[in-house]
Design a protein that fits this description.
heterodimer, A: mainly alpha, two-stranded antiparallel sheet, elongated, B: alpha+beta, four-stranded antiparallel beta sheet, 19% helix, 33% strand
Chain lengths: 568, 175
């Protein structure tokens, strides 16, 4: 016998098994006065759902280990289609959750949610806000970039400085005595398992308590927001939130700083919602620091949790709760003023602005170099290490490279586009221009005097000669070019160099001549030779004024060369 | 004419739908990204299996091949990317088989006079041909062992490593 399967039969089948899908009665509306309360609570829930689902999808790619954390976030950020948008949704969603959490707290206070036996509504709402801060604290470290690493160092340092339990708490929190793989697995576990479970539980509890309170209140028909209107408002709030976050994620990239480098110096700043605590720390030093790290924040937190027991009158109107309203207001004013002072101090600090500009440039270079040169098994972007060495060894004092300030004195050729066909082409035409050897000091009794390709000293008529010589030079580094190297043209270039004007000063076989030998020019071995001993007779000889870095460790040399190669 | 209630109910559905699509579209792209982009990249070209003189005629030998592999974000230099069975037939003739079983991808072993996959009992002749079921048993492998291209250069045996789709009769390389 065939039974027709209809919606009703399915409902009945489920009902017999204890699952009710139809409601017994029409959904009730809510009291008009409670609308801001419910709406902010639902927005908080919507925000949590957005964070949860974007977090789940980010977890498809994220890997919590010292070697892979930054690399996997870089992968999401730059390689995965729309990965930057999902990361942006999650990143800005965190801020939205803080904002909505605070709004909900204020609404709860104004409406006296903890009154009429509503203490648990207040506690659960407050805990959700604090757990949201916990999400921020743990999530900030996960990309394992400079910002997260250094900010987390400060925070766990504060935990470690607590009296009596500090060391113990810090060791348990970071999984050892210093940051490492276990710090990331612990923070990831808190961020993706423990805190979401707690938040989901607390939000459910929060809503149940809201319902409990609603049932105890009598709703008059006149002052009711009907269920369908309430639904619309909830959906509207959720849709606005998604729309706003999408817009921000689409237009403002979530930041990703360079990989964490414990050996570097970094001016870390916390997320905007912790700025007031950061500022507070500046006023208390040494043994007094605990006032800024524990006592003052503790007083504020204690006040918030104790509020249902302090403000005990049944009065809801703020007029009759002036003292407690002043208490709430002073917390927010204090945080607001402190944040503003922190921002102002940073804005007016030339030193910080300079550091910030350098950090922002580092971040861009880290992303570019990871793409150009790849990320190694150890999670290092070797070319980025080279970039930092290039800066640290003082190369920037003489050589101009992309995006960096022009050296004060012109002392060496620009390395923008170095070893590219374009670089060689321009060099051949105007070797003594500002971009190349113009103004570059030479050794005693010498000068940089290579003639340009079209000067009277060069007598080559073949129109393809310049292209062929450029092709020969570009081929010497042994790297891939786009379009690929043309071997015939390389051969032709070699003939021109050997048989025509260049051979007066340059050898192709590494012999000592007036100008540097040209074979393998720009290859790894050649670059290493120039960096270690630029004054070698077969390189720049007497003309050289660049210091040699003979003792540079091999690993640094490899990194430096990888960076120079990336300038092409 | 819609009344206010119906209008808001319809708007709720539209708005909710739009928000859900707006949120789910980028999420779906994260899920399907590996369909449109190669997330791993095996080394192209020939990899060294060692000196060709190191293989004895008639004695299959398992060799791991190393090369540079890209695995999502990481570039793994000189890591083992897979292994092969090298069978030497004469001074200049080799046969190279992937150790990956065409059935479900376990690693094929060498037994006395044949190859056998320990997981589900696929078995092959030393010539790589799929053996008929012995003792009335079935042979789950859908095809012969997968052969790989090779060449000898300057005394070194070079193998072009590749992976093939499993569970089908036709040998089809995974791009």
């Amino acid at each position: 016998m065939i039974t027709m399967i209809t919606a009703d039969t399915i409902k009945k089948w489920l009902k017999l098994r204890g699952i009710e899908v139809t409601r017994d009665q029409e959904p009730k509306g809510i009291p008009g006065d409670d609308l801001p309360f419910y709406l902010s609570a639902f927005s908080l829930l919507a925000c949590f759902i957005i964070q949860a689902v974007t977090g789940i999808f980010l977890a498809l790619y994220y890997s919590p280990s010292v070697t892979d954390a930054w690399a996997s976030v870089w992968y999401i950020h730059t390689q995965v289609t729309w990965g930057d948008i999902v990361r942006g949704l999650h990143y800005y969603g965190a801020s939205a959750m803080v904002v909505i959490g605070v709004i909900h707290l204020v609404v709860m206070f104004v409406q006296g949610a903890y009154k009429s036996r509503g203490e648990f509504i207040w506690f659960s709402g407050l805990l959700v806000l604090f757990i949201t801060f916990g999400f921020g604290l743990t999530g900030y470290l996960l990309p394992y970039d400079q910002m997260g690493y250094w900010a987390s160092q400060v925070r766990t340092g504060i935990v470690g400085s607590l009296p009596v339990v500090g060391d113990l708490a810090k060791t348990i929190l970071i999984g050892g005595s210093e940051f490492g793989n276990l710090t990331l697995t612990r923070f990831a576990s808190l961020h993706t398992l423990v805190l979401p479970a707690l938040t989901a539980g607390l939000l459910l509890f929060h809503f149940r308590m809201l319902g409990h309170r609603r049932d105890t209140n009598i709703i008059s028909e006149d002052d009711k927001v009907p269920a369908w209107a309430f639904t619309f408002l909830k959906v509207l709030a959720g849709a606005c939130l998604v729309g706003l976050l999408l817009a921000v994620a689409l237009f403002i990239e979530a930041p990703l700083e360079p990989p964490a480098d414990p050996a570097s110096v970094y001016e870390a700043r916390p997320e905007w919602y912790f700025l007031f605590l950061f500022q507070l720390l500046k006023y208390f030093e040494g043994p007094m620091a605990i006032i800024g790290t524990v006592i003052l924040p503790g007083v504020g937190t204690g006040f918030l949790f104790a509020l249902p027991f302090l403000d005990r009158s049944p009065e809801i109107s703020l007029k009759h709760r002036k003292l407690w309203a002043a208490g709430m207001a002073s917390i927010f004013c204090f945080a607001g003023v402190m944040s503003a002072v922190a921002l102002l101090e940073d804005a007016n600090s030339e030193k910080y602005q300079k550091a910030l500009a350098a950090q922002q440039h580092d971040a861009k270079e880290a992303l570019r170099l990871a793409e150009a040169d790849g990320i190694g098994m150890d999670g290092q972007v070797l070319a980025y290490t080279g970039y930092k060495l290039f800066e640290g060894k003082g190369c920037l004092g003489c050589h101009q490279v992309k995006g960096r300030t022009q050296p004060e004195e012109k002392l060496a050729p620009d390395l923008d586009g170095y070893l590219s066909r374009e670089w060689f082409h321009e060099f051949m035409l105007n070797p003594n221009s500002e971009r190349f050897y113009g103004g570059v000091p030479a050794g005693e009794d010498t000068e940089w005097d290579m003639p340009g390709f079209h000067s009277e000293d060069i007598d080559i008529e073949d129109p393809e000669a310049l292209t062929a010589i450029v092709e020969y030079m570009a081929a010497q580094s042994g790297r891939d070019h786009n379009p690929p190297i043309n071997p015939e043209l390389v051969e032709k270039g070699r003939t021109f160099i050997e048989e025509e004007a260049c051979s007066g000063c340059h050898s192709l076989e590494g012999e000592e001549m007036d100008g540097p030998a040209l074979d393998k020019y720009g290859s790894k071995a050649w670059l290493e030779a120039v960096i270690r001993k630029p004054h070698s007779p077969h390189l720049f000889g007497d003309r050289n004024s660049m210091p040699g870095f003979e003792d540079l460790p091999d690993t640094d040399m490899i990194a430096l060369i990888r960076y120079i190669e990336s300038l092409r | 004419m819609l009344n206010r209630r119906e209008a808001l109910q319809k708007s709720s559905v539209l708005l909710g739908g739009a928000a859900a699509i707006g949120l789910l579209t980028p999420l779906a792209r994260l899920l399907t990204f590996p369909l449109e982009t190669a997330t791993t990249e095996s080394p192209k070209g020939f990899l060294s299996a060692g000196l060709s003189g190191g293989f004895q005629v008639g004695a299959p030998k398992k060799v791991a091949l190393a090369g540079t592999k890209r695995d999502a974000w990481a570039t793994l230099e000189n890591v083992e990317v897979g292994s092969v069975w090298v069978c030497r037939d004469s001074e200049e003739e080799f046969r190279i088989y992937s150790t990956i079983c065409p059935h479900l991808g376990c690693a094929i072993n060498h037994a006395k006079d044949h190859f056998v996959c320990p997981c589900h009992g696929s078995h092959f002749e030393l010539s790589g041909e799929r053996k008929k079921g012995t003792d009335g048993g079935q042979n789950p492998s859908p095809r012969d062992m997968d052969t790989l291209d090779w060449k000898v250069e300057e005394g070194v045996l070079l193998v072009k490593y590749a992976r093939f789709k499993q569970g089908q009769e036709v040998k089809e390389e995974i791009a």
